[in-house]
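Q: A reviewer asked whether we had any structural model of the full assembly, not just the individual parts. We don't, so I'm hoping you can provide one. Inputs are below.
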Amino acid sequence: MRAWAHALAIVAGIAAPVALTFWTTSASGPRNAAQSAEIAQETMTPKQVVEAFERLAFDEGNPTEAVRRYVSKDVIDHSQRIAGDYDSIIELLVNLDWTNGRGPKRTIQHMVAEGDIVMVHYHLVREPGTPGFAAVDIFRVQGGKIVEHWEALQPLPDISSNKHGPF
Amino acid sequence: MATNNDILAEADLARTGRNFMIAVYAAQFFFGGWFVAHGLNQWLEFFPRPKGSSPIARELIMALNASGLFSLVKIMEVIGGVLFLANRFVPLAVILSFPVALSIAHLNLISNPDITSKIVGVVIMGLLGLIAIGHLDKFLPMLAFNSGDPGIRGLRQLFGKK
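A: Here is a predicted structure for the entire assembly that you could use as a starting point for your response.
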């Protein structure tokens, strides 16, 4: 092989695969950042998914995005406050007043994960100044998405004879 | 005496041989550039490092990174790629690159579900296979059914002794 042809082949040999890689990882390419983020979510453990959902929905006050990102479209919700499908979850959360940090306050007490089930025991205060609820959410997670949800809410009394408190 | 048909057949064979040589060179330099760029990307990050497009692929890549084996693989990629680009020790580069290419192909064909990965898996083995066939004459001694007794002939030849 002649020297000039060799030099040209080296340049083309490096440029072609590099250009191809830049294209595949660009926004319009088949290996773009959005697809990468989706895959990253699929690799999260069920507990990580629920933690991320809680953080986005309640700590950052963005419940609609949290549902969009972490809840399956085919979710089954056993909460008796709603119809139990994806849209009814969105409707419930959007209709709550989340403005100016006024959304419900959740203080997580325990979080336990086993297999695809994650259980969250927390103190829920919907109205500031009220005792709120001792609550448990149970999530079933598959492929990085919440696919099923159960809840149990125990209203807390203003005064209780229990010397240990609810938590 | 060669007939016109013989001459034409020989010319046709030479043209086919030349086209094949160009195809092998194209595969070799593309493969070499690919391996050098992606090998060096492990440390220089010209573009996002592939993370795998399925949970199992991601876990495998994470485990390779955590154990340090990925760096070794990338060093082999760079060495193989440089040899292909330099057009030196090409049969050795084929041997060196084979386990790396096989691992990449397996990851892309079996663990990654997306179509891009499937294409990558097929192309990488196709390119390396084409380069190997282009240098098949160097590998033919390896295809001896009866390999005979081991000895020091190879060592002597390596150091230029008869």
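A: Points you may want to mention in the reply: Helices of chain A lie at 3-24, 33-42, 46-59, 63-70, 86-95. Residues 1-31 of chain A form one domain.
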